[in-house]
Amino acid sequence: MAFLPLAIARLILASGEGEAGWAIYQQILQTPRYLISLIQTVLVSLAVTIAALAVSTTAGLFLTRNRFRGRSVLLSILTLPLAFPGVVVGFMIILLGGRQGLFNTVFPGQVVFAYSIFGLFLGYLYFSIPRVLLTVMAAAEKIDPAREEAARTLGAPPHLVARDLLFPALAPALIAAGEIAFATAMGVFGTAFTLATNIDVLPMVIYTEFTSSANIAMAAALSVMLGMVTRAILFVARSFTGATVVAGG
Amino acid sequence: MRIGKVLQLSVTLLAAAFLLVPTIMSVLAGLTVNYFQGVRSGLTLQWVVKVWELYAGSIFLSLGLALACLAVTLVIGVPAAYALAHNPGRASRAVEEFISLPLAIPGLALALALLQLYGSYRGFRLSWTFILVGHVLYTLPFMVRSVQSVLAAIDLKTLEEGAASLGAGPARRFVDIVVPNALPGILAGALTVVMLSIGEFNLTWMLHTPYLKTLPVGLADSYASMRLEIASAYTLIFFVMIVPLLLAMQWASARAQRITQ
């Protein structure tokens, strides 16, 4: 296990070994290309987190509270991408929105979105839905619907029941799930590798710095930056919501 | 309320379609003579055969890596989970956080760190064990957590005291008491480790060499440079390997979870 701390320490040290020394971090903030890719990565990840929470909470609550034929098949389909690596997810989006993709075949014209920022968003959403869904469902199964029924019998309108009873009970799970979705979207490389040929997201920039430019110090510094920004945003989100949930996955 | 329910169902179905439609398209494309002309051009296994000719090596490398990774995570992870469950306390929690660190670090950063640290040892860098180290670091937390959650749910102390009073030493207690009781957790953890290792790309892409291409590395390669039918047929082979693993893993996890409740 000594591999890990040594490796991380080495990475941080390596970021300061370039020509610029430790000023490399200042350089990141002053170079528009790095800064824009950082902001772009954060924005896409936030958008994916919100979308995945909306879709998976709706689906998760529906699947927890209704028993019907085909429910388990539906649940299997919704958790299928758990086993897909990022590259495969990227390929799925190409099949939907690439040049030979579904949309471009059904609506002949120029419906090619796989390689745009929207395609990347869909790719990230693709692997976030199952992760968020499982967390939400695990929490939703523990909520006793009797409390909500009682509130309804007493005349509370549905949106108040949701606001005052359902969401407070789900809140810790939603925060944990949101953290997982956000952290994964920030760092995932495979999907960006297949889709983001023209988009600068941070993992792709790190990769090109390392391979094409052989700028190892910058690749290391950007990785450290990526890790720190992710942690910082999760920290802010956590203190903002006042919960202490450990994310993982 | 009824409208609400219809809306919920539509969102659920739409999400399922979003996830399922491209996988079906991929399976079909891998079995179609000419995807551009559609299924009318006929079904064939020629692309699957072609993929096997081109990439069988990478498929076997991934299987071998996954088994080696499983062996290492079992040998390290099960005793580690036992030690953590046996000595709850602040130190244990620190170690636990520490083991879980790779979950919080992007795979790309972890790969860069490994390259920085060990890249200059040529023999190690060029051997498959280098990729193995990355896979072990990434999958170990899943094994530890899975085993630990089962161990935390049983009354380990009483069982061990009983065995000790009958004269069983620590090694005997570990083999005869701890391992059998932790088996559901070990099984769920093992299936997770194998599944994750076979599908790992973020780290592996950085660590691989031209002579050591794993299955997902080969996939990325085929997406970039092969015709759509071959890329799809390769994806189909991957699905055939990974989906049964996923189903088995979900079954084993549900079984392990019933114990902890």
Task: Describe the overall structure.
Helices cover 74% and strands 0% of the residues of chain A. Chain A has twelve helices and no strands. Chain A is globular, with a radius of gyration of 21 Å. Chain A is mostly helical and 249 residues long. Chain A has one domain: Orthogonal Bundle (MetI-like fold). In chain A, helix 3 packs across helix 9, helix 7 crosses helix 9 and helix 8 runs antiparallel to helix 9. Chain B starts with a helix and ends with a helix. Chain B has a single domain, classed as MetI-like fold (Orthogonal Bundle). Chain B is an all-alpha fold and 261 residues long. The interface between A and B is large, with 71 and 68 residues.
Label this structure with key terms.
A: 249 residues, mainly alpha, MetI-like fold, 74% helix, B: 261 residues, 0% strand
Secondary structural class of chain B? mainly alpha
Biggest interface = A-B, 71 and 68 residues
β-sheet strand percentage of chain B: under 5%
CATH superfamily of chain A: MetI-like
Q: How much helix is in the residues of chain A?
A: over 70%
What is the number of helices of chain A? 12
Order of helices and strands of chain A: HHHHHHHHHHHH
Domain module count of chain A: 1
Q: What profile does the largest beta sheet of chain B have?
A: none
User: How many strand elements of chain A?
Assistant: 0
Q: Using the coordinates shown, work out and report the CATH topology of chain B.
A: MetI-like fold
CATH class of chain B equals Mainly Alpha
Order of helices and strands of chain B: HHHHHHHHHHHH
Global geometry of chain A:
globular
